[in-house]
Inverse folding.
């Protein structure tokens, strides 16, 4: 009886103390899809501020402003989620530490009791030695059962503690996985926010610069509008301008007989905006792009004109004229007869200009009209 009982206590204690390690595992999380406004913000970030129209540039800035506001909320929510996950992870790790301490205490008690029962002379582990009859054996067996029951309670507590530890280790692993995943989401949100902020700052600066330059240009042009209109009418009335020239070039011609002077995006329309009046349209092109006569006619002005910079004005007869401003270099001279499509200059950024472009006007009896009403 001594050997089996001793083995039961010692082996059971060893099994609980050296029990199998807790399996590691973590639930995987599905990453959230990128929000639609974030995708749009990324597209807007690639806008060429010089080639974008006024409305496109203003709209892009407004959209990016809204995107920054939305992404700030998302980033804050993501960081809050990370904090909550880290708090849960710390709680799980604290529970593990407490359970491990409890296991150490219980394990020590079980081992101590097993050794005492084995080593103590006359103790419970030797109580069955030297029995004289069945009656005495029965009494000693009952006594040993009580001792074994006391040891079993300690072993049961140790076994429960080990099960608690396994559960807590699983919970801690799960909490760590959630915290890691949420940190990745938060990092992505912060990165998107930084990109959107950078794009917004870039376009906002371009828009502010364009508005300031436009207002300066509008003021400069307005200050000489009366002089310009009077000059054109005087030239036409004096008969110094004639239709002249032969229609040429391979550009598409409108019903009004005009072709586009060059090819490029329309960056600023005709009319009032930003506190001023724009008497023509702006076509965004690099410096040095060839400018073609929109219609055959006679050059009545070729030179520098205040806010317009280097300008060419062509009279087409019948009170109709076209104006080409901000040129880097002129390609014609006053009195010259030009054909439709003939090169009369090269685009630039002279005068009060919002950047490299061609400012193109159409005028009737010296008064500015919307060029889009005459172009194909």
């Amino acid at each position: 009886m001594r050997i089996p009982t001793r083995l039961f206590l010692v082996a059971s204690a060893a099994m609980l103390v050296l029990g199998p390690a807790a399996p590691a595992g973590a639930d995987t999380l599905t990453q959230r899809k990128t929000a639609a406004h974030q995708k749009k913000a990324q597209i807007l970030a690639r806008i060429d501020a010089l080639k974008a129209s006024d409305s496109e540039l203003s709209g892009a800035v407004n959209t990016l402003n809204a995107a920054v506001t939305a992404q700030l909320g998302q980033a804050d929510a993501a960081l809050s989620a990370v904090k909550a996950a880290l708090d849960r992870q710390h709680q799980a790790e604290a529970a593990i530490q407490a359970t491990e301490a409890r296991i150490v205490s219980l394990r020590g008690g079980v081992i101590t009791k097993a050794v005492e029962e084995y080593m103590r002379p006359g103790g419970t582990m030797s109580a069955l030695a030297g029995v004289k009859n069945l009656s005495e054996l029965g009494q000693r067996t009952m006594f040993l059962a009580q001792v074994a029951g006391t040891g079993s309670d300690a072993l049961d507590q140790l076994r429960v503690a080990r099960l608690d530890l396994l559960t807590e280790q699983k919970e801690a692993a799960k909490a760590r996985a959630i915290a890691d995943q949420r940190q990745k989401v938060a990092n992505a949100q912060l990165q998107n926010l930084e990109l959107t902020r950078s794009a917004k700052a870039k376009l906002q600066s371009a828009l502010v610069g364009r508005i300031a330059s436009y207002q300066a240009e509008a003021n400069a042009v307005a200050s000489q509008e009366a002089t310009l209109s009077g000059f054109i009418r005087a030239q036409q009335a004096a008969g110094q301008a004639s239709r002249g020239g032969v229609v040429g070039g391979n550009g598409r011609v409108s019903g009004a007989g005009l072709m586009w002077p060059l090819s490029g995006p329309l960056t600023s329309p005709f009319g009032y905006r930003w506190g001023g009046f724009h008497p023509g349209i702006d076509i965004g092109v690099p410096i040095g792009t060839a400018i073609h006569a929109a219609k055959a006619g006679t050059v009545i002005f070729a030179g520098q004109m205040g806010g317009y910079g280097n300008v060419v004005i062509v009279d087409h007869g019948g009170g109709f004229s076209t104006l080409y401003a901000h040129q880097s270099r002129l390609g014609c001279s006053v009195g010259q007869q030009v054909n439709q499509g003939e090169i009369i200059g090269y685009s630039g950024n002279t005068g009060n200009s919002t950047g490299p472009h061609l400012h193109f006007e159409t005028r009737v009896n010296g008064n500015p009209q919307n060029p889009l009403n005459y172009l194909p």
